[in-house]
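Let's study today's protein:

:::
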Amino acid sequence: MIESIPLPDHRKGLSELCQGASKEARDFIRCCLQFNPKERVPAETLLQHAYVSAFHDITHEPEYPHGPIRIDLEGNAKLSPKEYRDRLCHHIEQKRLAALERQRDKIRRGRGSL
């Protein structure tokens, strides 16, 4: 499938594609866009990258055991690290409350069948 994609006549480097981006931003993108999975930088390591270090605070990052969390953002909204963190925490809290409600419903249904 990927073999069917035609290669461009002229390959552009990240510096050319992302002319307005900082050196740190381009390096972060390069780390994220490794095609070979064995060459990709792990997410835990990327969180320490200079470009996203302002968003990384281990004291405010509990582990979420239920897979990736999707957060809807309006268009190209640029938020501060605190705003992103607050939205993420709010989203996690909503998921937690919904899970508790499902658990309560399951218990209620179980009692009703006794």
